[in-house]
Amino acid sequence: MLICALIGAAIAFALAKQITPQYRAAASIMLDTRQTSVIDLESVLTNTPLNRQLLESELLIIESDTLLERVVRKLRLDRDPEYNRRLARPSEIDLMIDERVAQLKALIGMGSSEASASAEEVNPGPPPNPELIATEDRRRAVRILRGKLKARQLSPAFAISVQVISTDPLK
């Protein structure tokens, strides 16, 4: 029983070391729905369909590809491993899994590193297009940023809450 507890604690410790902490940045945006030519104060403060449409439009803009791509370009997120998995270092678990898969392939004769290396030398394929890679990196960063972004209405006010999650406390 004690051995099982020790093994369980060791596994829990190993898994806990692999978990990446997450940090959340949040901002609230208050929308000014007043019109300069309005005389009736009550009509400005009511929840009119026009004001709801304005709020929904602002939410759509915040989550739009156009705005997110501007953020990616300005902050160079396409060059950040958190937003571009192609640049990220593999975790210890990924390396261990890759090693086990390679061992299994070698065991069953599905290929060796020598065979795949010689195949690459014979048929290297066309050289990568830097513009195409940069475009794909930006798209990837936009997609990941969208997944880390939460924008919602703060009811009943005409305000929007915007939150982004990151693994880096400085971002």
Walk me through what this model shows.
The chain has 171 residues and is α+β, with helices and mostly antiparallel strands. It has 7 helices and 3 strands, in the order αβααααααββ. The chain has a 3-stranded antiparallel beta sheet. A hairpin with a 4-residue loop joins strand 2 and strand 3. Helix 4 crosses helix 7 (130-148). The longest helix is centred in the last third of the chain and has 19 residues, at 130-148. The mean pLDDT is 80.
Strand share of the residues?
5-15%
How would you classify the helix and strand content by structural class?
alpha+beta
Specify the helix fraction band: 40-55%
Provide the low-confidence segments as ranges: none
Order of helices and strands: HEHHHHHHEE
How would you describe the oligomerization state of the chains in this entry? Answer: single chain
How would you describe the shape? flat
> What's the number of helices?
7
What order do the strands of the largest sheet run in, or round the barrel if closed? 1-3-2
Please outline the major beta sheet.
Answer: 3 strands, antiparallel
The strand count comes to: 3
Alpha-carbon distance between the termini? 45 Å
Radius of gyration: 25 Å
Mean pLDDT comes to: 80
